[in-house]
Amino acid sequence: MATVELRFSALPEHVRTARLVAAAVARRAGVDEAVLDEVRLAVGEACTRAVGLHQTGGITAPVQVVLIEEEKQFSIEVGDEAPHAVPGERAPGAAPSDDAETDEDEMGLAVISGLVDDVEVSAGEHGGLIRMTWPTTPPTAVTA
Questions:
Q1: pLDDT (tens digit per residue) in 28-52
Q2: What is the 3-state secondary structure (H, E, C) of the chain?
């Protein structure tokens, strides 16, 4: 199992770099070429969401992206350190909910879910994690 870890300051200009790194590692891992655009878009959405949560919450910790290459699958985990509320409650220390912000967050998660068949979202008072997984194809043997 090969793993690549990327941490970047919560600034929008770093999201592009995360997308490029994710696509390059996904290609090397054996993710189908036809799916690489979806990988880029999904990682971009997840990283943009994490950056927004960090900026809104005044969090200076970096956004974390972990790229995990396993035998028959490739996973990307995007983590933030923003406190997330339990459904129906406010996040610890959060201001009263801004409907536009909540709608934007839900829209980002909907886009990711539309792009990736295997998505897990977890969140708590110490941060959130989006794990996206794609199947890989083994490299074909070249015969002479």
A1: 999 999 999 999 999 999 999 999 9
A2: CEEEEEEECCCHHHHHHHHHHHHHHHHHHCCCHHHHHHHHHHHHHHHHHHHHHHHHHCCCCCEEEEEEECCCEEEEEEEECCCCCCCCCCCCCCCCCCHHHHHHHHHHHHHHHHHCCEEEEEEECCEEEEEEEEECCCCCCCCC
